[in-house]
Amino acid sequence: MKLRNSNLTIALVMNLILILHCGKAQNPLSEGNSDYFGQKSPGAIPELFAPGIISTAEHEHSFPSFTPDRNEVFWTSIIMTVNRKYPAMILNSRNLDGKWSEPQFASFSGKYPDAEGCLTYDGNRFIFGSQRPVVSDGETKEDLDLWFVDRTSSGWSEPARINSINTDKQEMQPSVSKNGNMYFVGYFEIGRNNNGIYRAEYENGEYLDPVLLGENINTDQFQWTPFIARDESYLLFSGIREDGYGSGDIYISFRHDDGSFGKPVNLGPTINSENNERFPCVSPDGKYLFIVSDKKLFENDVNDPKTLYDLKDISKKPGNGYSDVYWVSAGIIDSLKTVYKRK
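Structure (tokenized):
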């Protein structure tokens, strides 16, 4: 695809960040920040996040959503190797006395097809997509609706459907700002795959009617997997645009004083690639950007034939092209704010 001049600016910004932050990849379980599975903090080059724990040989299909204290995390995985009716499930892990628990089904997931979700700012509500029946003992839905669970003294509540948001079309991939306003993907007729990004204001404990974001965000191309900043100052999402690098790329749009979002900016070739990048998310402490990528860490092997044993071994590890979670310094976002805030 043809690149625009904005990508040159991105490249220059990334070169500066590389000089300031770049370091060698670290052992994911070496001594480091215990908030993030003991991994060393990444620099400006995306690195696999929690390989073998969150990034696995399976298909990771959401950003990791951490509680504010970073001691609990939720994410979605599609179990590619298991032939079962409900392959997409929400998993979680907890940091107890400095040791992370083995991943397991979230208490409210594992029975029906459940999709991507996110914690609210205080960590006491989890909102997610699901095809579960609307009524008890009903039929599994063909489309995804948005549901939520609340944290209680004894665990998580029973899932409840957000009736004011849901329709007979898709509602999925929520992200919530500090004040409770929710951004999500819903039906947009002219968008590719009918995907559009909506905003629903949260007032007096209820969501108001969703509003489709403007034409800077929603085009006849592809837009999905939104992430809204805590203060709603910017929106990250995955999109297919003319200035992209081959598939879905991560874009950022800064919000203007009138509430509209500016022209999206591609995060550049260090973050994006010819593969599909999606599910952007910034950690609760604002330090790290998470993305999901289909990149193959062995992609150059086409010129270096492997034995059958080697190929089988590659297929059982993250980086096999099924989709993995990567993390990188969030410094690029701060660097771009002053450049693109008013565009």
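The chain has one domain: 6-340. The chain has a mean pLDDT of 87.
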